[in-house]
Amino acid sequence: MKKAALHNLGCKVNAYETEAMQQLLEEAGYEIVPFSEKADVYVVNTCSVTNMADRKSRQMLHKAKKLNPDSIVVGAGCYVQTKEQEAISDLAIDIIIGNNKKHELVSLINEYMAKRENTHSDLLTENAVIDINDNKQEFEELFLSKTAEHTRAFIKVQDGCNQFCSYCIIPYARGRVRSRSIENVLAEVNRLAQNGFKEIVLTGIHLSSYGVDCDDNLLHLIREVHKVDGIERIRLGSFEPRLITEEFASELSKLEKVCPHFHLSLQSGCDETLNRMNRKYTTEEYARSCQLLRKYFDHPAITTDVIVGFPGETEEEFEKTKEYLEKIHFYEMHIFKYSKRQGTRAAVMDNQVPDEIKTKRSSILIELGNRMSKEYRDYYIGMDKEVLFEEKTKLFGKEYFVGYTKEYVKVAIETQENVENRLITGKIAEPLSGEVYLMKNI
Q1: Per-residue pLDDT at 106 exceeds 60
Q2: Closest Cα to residue 357, out of 419, 420, 315?
Q3: Quick one: pLDDT band at residue 115, thresholds 50, 70, 90?
Q4: Edge to edge, what strands does the sheet with 199-204 contain?
Q5: Is the pLDDT confidence value at 371 over 90?
Q6: Quick check: 408 and 300 in contact, CB under 8 A?
Q7: 3-class secondary-structure state, position 224
């Protein structure tokens, strides 16, 4: 039996696609082995969101070829899509698969193997790379019936982005917005539910744009998924604050399976910076979205992303952002230091911020985020909460099962029972570690 190994870099959409490609290989008769082991085929699903992501993608592709020089190395995804010529000239890569062609993985491997056997030479197969922005692309259908996790499944429902933020390469890597049909989403959700999954996460490159290309909308999709028997929880991936209208928040709150855990992308708490970033909202509009979520949901978990050191960000602008973040009071913040991305408008902007200033500002916001996150989690001490337990782990020499509340607060329970994939209600007690809270079973 031939062996295959896969490695994923980047976002949850990439992770979904990697698991789907693994399933394609399994169905074709491949034994899946860890990426560190010798394999006949290595698949690296690459990322290109930053220059560092490009570098890591190249490193993993080269690592694969070193692990087995006779192997077939497949470079898939955003890095090879945006740096096609660079990938073609890289001797470590045998097959290049751009976005929207990952479903052809097995046939492309077979095609390459046939070429190699017939010519006794390594012939790069790069015909799978397409201009993702040339004409209208269709949503690439990939399906999962199982995932690496046993309780939660991520489902890709949308691809592409029409926003063109000044710092972002993704519209060039992923193309324009493409939505998955509700029928296909429901078919996958039902299959996952039948296989025991209780929680699903709807995700996409720009989830807020779901349906704009096919006269549909995200709320309709969520309502339909909510009807699926066996699914107990629905989480949403990252979306834009403009999606949160009075109607959207009100209607969403009526769907009891929807988790009150919302990731609203912010990037900056300063309007001048947001304008340079080409973000399509103001801080006032963003705050209004948070207010609506807090109006219709009880103590929702609101998380966000923040970029520090964007070109032109002055000390005054940074202070505005810091004060704004404290005012909104997030559950969690993912802080990123701005990194130049070749091919974007921001990369050639004036007044690039020195690295040492970025590092200082990042540290300040990380400390602020840690404090706000603890305050949010401490709110639940003494409350009865439902937890979906996921796996057994060892903490301080003892074995616990750990899982998450609907608000994504991590909880541990000490028990001899196997409670994997079970929903249990209990009282949240003191912190067991920095981010894990103990549950006392009722």
Answers
A1: yes
A2: 315
A3: confident
A4: 178-179, 152-159, 199-204, 233-236
A5: yes
A6: no
A7: helix
Radius of gyration of the chain measured on its C-alpha atoms: 23
Q: Are residues 338 and 414 in the same domain?
A: no
Q: Do 290 and 177 fall within a single domain?
A: yes
Residues whose CB is less than 8 angstroms from the CB of residue 312 and which lie 6 or more positions away in sequence, other chains included:
272, 273, 276, 349, 350, 351, 353
What digits encode the pLDDT tens for the residues 222-264?
Answer: 999 999 999 999 999 999 999 999 999 999 999 999 999 999 9
Task: Tell me the mean pLDDT in the region 282-296.
Answer: 98
Residue 142 makes CB contacts below 8 A (sequence gap 6+) with 16, 17, 20, 21, 102, 103, 156
3-state percent helix, strand, coil for the chain, nearest multiple of 5: 35, 25, 40
For residues 183 and 208, what is the distance between their CA atoms, to the nearest angstrom?
19
| Domain total in the chain | 3
User: Who contacts 418 (Cβ-Cβ below 8 Å, separation ≥6)?
Assistant: none
Amino acid at residue number 333? M
- 199 and 308 belong to one structural domain: yes
Residues in CB range of 89: below 8 A, 6 or more apart? none
Whether 209 and 342 map to the same domain: the answer is yes
Q: Is 379 helix (H, G, I), strand (E, B) or coil?
A: coil
359 is a domain residue: yes
- Is the pLDDT at 31 greater than 90? The verdict is yes
CA atoms within 13 A on the CB side of 120: 0
- SS3 label, residue 384: strand
**6-20, 108-122, 184-198: segment of lowest average pLDDT:** 108-122
DSSP 8-state symbol, 102: G
Closest by Cα among 189, 124, 140 to 14: 140
- For the chain, the average pLDDT equals 92
Specify the DSSP element, H or E, that contains 55: helix 51-67
Runs of H (alpha helix) within 98-160: 105-119
Dihedral, CA atoms, 373, 375, 378, 384, nearest 10 degrees? -80
Written as six digits, the tokens of 197 are 């999954």
Q: How confident is the model at residue 128, as a pLDDT?
A: 53
125 belongs to a structural domain: no
244 within some domain = yes
